[in-house]
Input
Amino acid sequence: RFSMPWGKPAARMRELILAMRAIWANWYEGQPLDFRGEFYTHTLMTPMFTPEDTQFGAPRVLLAAVGPLMTEVAAEVADGILIHGFTTERYMRNVTLPAIEKGLAKSGRNRADFEICYPLFVVSGADEQQFERTKKATCKQIAFYGSTPAYRPVLEQHGWGALQSELNLLSKQGRWDEMGTLIEDDILNEFAIVGEPGDIVPGIRARFGDIVDRVATRFPFVTEADLPDMLAALKA
Output
């Protein structure tokens, strides 16, 4: 579909990260470059390609993942994971966290060595009109993601697997606006923190406080003057 070969995505990504780390070990630690894998080979590093400003050390690697195999790879060879927005608390606890523990065990690390980041959906509003606009846009976004076959297991955690087939069919027919109408309130509430502005931070902390290290979202319903207090409450 995108004019690129497809196969063994988790194994390929694992090797890519290991290859990057081999290159960085050459740059930052002076180790000989001799990486030979199934997909990538790196055995030459010229002075022209070696950076001079190495005082900050190698970059951290955060890997985006949804399925258990890629999640396990993230926990094995990366420094953190970027969880997809199309994720629910149940999927995190039943699928994501066990895969992370499995990957960490392979690398001999523990949870404190690994960062979990989550760009979550928030539905709220300073007034009813803003709330409804945000709700409609979020439902459309959830429906768009839900049409993807690879994300069906997230819906199946809640018994909504058939919804993926329906959304996928509508997407192929170009009926994008209709897709959002299939995201009913019970589905929306699993994928998003929904409520009055004052309920959002407590809702995030209650649902994900013991799972996620960092969240990314938008608070367009909060005034500039109130935003620092809201962020402070989120970090507390």
Q: What stands out?
A: The CA atoms of residues 63 and 74 lie 6 Å apart. Residues 1-54 form one domain.
